[in-house]
Amino acid sequence: MNSSQFRDAAHAAVEEIIQYYETLPTRPVLSTVSPGYLRPLLPSGPPQTGQPWSAIQPDISRLIMPGLTHWQSPNFMAFFPANASYPSMLGELYSAAFTAPAFNWLCSPAVTELETVVLDWLATLLGLPTCYLSEGEGGGVIQGSASEAIVSVMVAARERIVRRRVEGMAEGSKEKEDATWQLRSRLVALGSDHAHSSTQKAANIAGTRFRSVPAPRASGFRMTASALRRAIEECKADGLEPFYLTATLGTTATCAIDDLAGIAALAADYPDIWIHVDAAYAGAALILPEYQSLTPPLAHFDSFDFNMHKWLLTNFDASCLYVKHRRHLTDALSITPSYLRNEFSDSGLVTDYRDWQIPLGRRFRALKIWFVLRSYGVSGLQAHIKGHIQLGELFHSLVAGRSDILTVLTGPAFALTVLHVNPRRRGGGARRASVTAADHSDPQHEAYLNDFTTDAEAQYLADANAVTKEVYERVNGGGLIYLTSGV
Ligand code: PLP
Fold this sequence. Notes:
Layout: H1 3-23, H2 53-56, H3 58-64, E1 76-77, H4 86-97, H5 109-125, E2 139-143, H6 146-166, H7 174-186, E3 187-192, H8 198-206, E4 209-213, H9 225-237, E5 241-248, H10 260-267, E6 274-278, E7 303-307, H11 308-311, E8 319-323, H12 326-333, H13 343-347, H14 366-400, E9 406-413, E10 416-421, H15 443-450, H16 455-478, E11 482-483
Helix pairs in contact: 4-14, 5-14, 6-7, 6-8, 6-12, 9-10, 15-16
The protein binds pyridoxal-5'-phosphate.
Pyridoxal-5'-phosphate (PLP) is lined by residues 80, 145-147, 196, 198, 248, 250-252, 278, 280-281, 307, 319.
């Protein structure tokens, strides 16, 4: 494709994308294709000779569109938001055009320097403690995902505790090697049982154990400091060494917030535990001043991560990781063979983000964040988040107003309301208009909202789950709205 062909193709593609966005609200949100739909529609291999864009473009609507679930549709209410926007897409376009796997500052100084600046802007916007700004010992880096960020900081945490424990032992000695590997075999990462699965996955990757801290219904699905202390002490009693904790600001299932202030108070007792705050989705709400009372405890922790690509109009991928001491990341992840050395890196005056992440190469992701921040401005982004939270509150009030058929389980929290459909009475007809407001004295219902201890309560839960599943499958089956079920 030459420049003139690119011009025509790009114009046609942009037109099609705009048309796609303008018609999104009227498209069924869920794809209805069956598994394996695509292969029979494609040739057995790529064409021998190149095809013109005029032959390729129609296959977007013919072959690809039927297999798309429309995450940008206003009727997409499943999982979590995964916002995109035109300014962000333009950032992706330029990033693709400039393609430069800028692992070192020297590889493309603008890539590194813009990243440092926009991440400082964002940290300030979110009200993060100043220890996470690049002007001190901390700083931010854009990762591909919150999961990647957790792997990176868990490895940094592992290396930090090992370094501390073997300090003073002779380099290369058997004593040091044995002490390192004995300690490694006892390391345990912690997260509440509502922490995202990425913490457990990171422990698998980092080669450590994982234990969960109970966060039951009775505590609002949040990890309390006392439950955490118990879990830590149990690990120690078992001869294990807790070295890492994920505290969550906005859990995946209910958007609960772990007791950050309580955990901060406990942090000083366990200085070898790296505390990471996973705010993948809900962290975006910190751009509203009314949520910033959540941030002071972060000064007692080691790292914080939130996804621009979930709720702040920046398309995947843009996960913003902040660390209080960048040297812990670079100590763990920096390996510099001769071909990666250069005078600027050696001078110590520049940031080489390859040392803050798993891969070597990296994309120019700061560009799309910069475009989004400038196009919407602070007030535009605040209005975006506030609007969603208000819609969430409206949704919650509508659900709460139908307690004859629905029960709110949690929320509204950061625009998320968790509900179930009231079960029918077993043995026949519908549960007497099920659980109405007056029914809240119903002992089974009360138990449901607390904990399930008796067979009858467990049965109530099973019934509620069954009917909720039936209803959500019907809603999703209709294709117009897409919801997520936890049952
Ligand atoms: N953490 C939380 C709290 C999440 O809700 C999610 C995704 O839903 C993740 C982490 C994983 O995010 P990513 O896809 O960026 O790895």
